[in-house]
């Protein structure tokens, strides 16, 4: 294979002739590893040949020895730097060849001896055993927790009592710790990101990778004693793996190196399991959310086709009603189920959407109108202080008065929509007055009679003002519109009364009334007798009344006209 | 003793009304509807009082005050400026009070009272 890297032909005392596969070269270049002391040679002429195979680094030394490591930048750079520092002879002599061989031995020792507790063990076998074990545990582990627990099954970590990981997913507000102590006792904890980061940095900076629990008082480690730690920084998360024997004896170099190798080998599995766990978490969160979602629905994952339905959907399905699909683009398709229940909620949503929109609109209007109105008022006031004629003065006073009225109307509307659903003790009479004021233009030609019985004009109710005003406004407008074409005298009565538990407001008119066959329809959505009506007014009004633990009903009466009764709890 | 007043207000009706009102009380009044123009005027003249609306079309009244720091000390700013605003949110109030100047809410509840506050 040709090496495309620009060869450095200045051979100096520190240089090393290597052959690297292009994939390794790219890997190092991406990480901006300095390669200035290397001389790139063909495979046959290089002192060191680096190949990448199955995510492992295969190294062939010029003396024919061969070894492999997990493929990490650290391993490669370590290897290269060791070579550089020891192989200082510019021209290969017998002596330097000897030193070269020595280097090979040192490197091999460094890497292999650390995992061999018994010098008689076959190094290669041990290495294989560790790789095999980490492979098994990573395949046996279907959750992050079980992987962390199984780290303790790795040979040479069998005298350890605790295995934990602290990890922080990018974008999360907390870091989490999971693991086991005393081999079997599950531990779980959360950590502020700030604390986690400082912990992570201390681990990262440490060269010996062995610590004492007392060094980190803020971390609240679930054991006392020395521990080994190794950090992993990936694109999605940062992680600290920790293991401890729960004692204060220092760890040997072998153990440290073994633990590091083991965590290095497990890195891709941490990655996979964290990924899996958090997508599982997302789905289970979604399920919990949707379980009590107030609409019947089912969700289909478009990739796997798995589907779950919520309780409402299930019960609706059993009732075998009409059915329609509503597809929402995205990874899930959402099917909404049509039913009365759905309509009920849809209207609530519609209602609140409308109210919040109105609220926003009013707020804007208030701010936008207040300045010009203020200007008008100020101008009128100033003209009035000039020596003007009496009739001019009258006009100016009238302008001022009208501006005040505009301001008052805006103020009233804003107050009405501002409180939204806040329950606040509100005077019933005040709410009725408000409704009449709002419907003033529609009811201009009506003679209105408001009667209060049993001191009901003094009554304060603990209900959202906006709900009551909305209901009464609806009833008054309905009455006014029903009587619009009426030639006879148009009358509207509002009779207020109360007993111990309920206040009642009866709104009646002397209009055409509602025919018997229509009475059963009037509280159904989209039923309307008006050409411009939405058919939602009475449905919304009744929903609002029910929400306040009250009710809205039609009262049959012998006399002419329609009669509605709103009851509100006291 | 206050003699010259600058009124910075982009609502022309308010601006002219105030000008007229203050002139009739005997003050010499300049007006500006733009914040940037007002800054030039402040740096070029010596006004005894500057009445400044917060919501201008180009920059905010706070920007005008900040720019005026080139000429006036913090203490002088507190004495010279009167802030006028229709948006009396807590943020605005706390920022205004940090300059230590007088604050007038629009619309004025009492015209005479407002004029008095502007001119003493």
Describe the protein.
The complex is a heterodimer of chains A (570) and B (120). Chain A has 570 residues and is α+β, with helices and mostly antiparallel strands. Chain A folds into five domains: 16-115, Rossmann fold; 124-281, 2-Layer Sandwich (Beta-Lactamase), CATH 3.30.450.40; 292-338, no CATH class; 344-418, Helix Hairpins, CATH 1.10.287; 424-569, 2-Layer Sandwich (Heat Shock Protein 90), CATH 3.30.565. Helices cover 43% and strands 21% of the residues of chain A. In chain B, 47% of the residues lie in helices and 20% in strands. Chain B has helices spanning 12-24, 35-44, 61-68, 74-80, 90-98, 111-119; strands at 4-8, 28-32, 49-53, 81-85, 102-105. Chain B has a five-stranded parallel sheet, with helices on both faces. In chain B, helix 2 runs parallel beside helix 3 (61-68). At the A-B interface, helix 9 of A face helix 1 of B.
Count of the domains of chain B: 1
Gyration radius of chain A, rounded: 41 Å
Unreliable stretches of chain A (pLDDT < 50, length at least 5) are 1-13, 85-92, 113-120, 320-332
Report the C-alpha radius of gyration of chain B, rounded: 13 Å
Quick gist of this model?
Chain A has 570 residues and is an alpha+beta fold. Chain A has helices at 22-30, 73-86, 94-112, 123-140, 144-150, 193-205, 253-291, 311-319, 340-385, 390-418, 428-438, 465-482, 516-519, 537-547, and strands at residues 16-20, 38-40, 48-53, 56-61, 66-70, 162-169, 174-181, 185-192, 210-212, 226-233, 237-244, 297-301, 307-309, 332-336, 424-427, 447-452, 460-463, 491-498, 502-509, 551-554, 563-569. Helix content of chain A is 43%, strand content 21%.
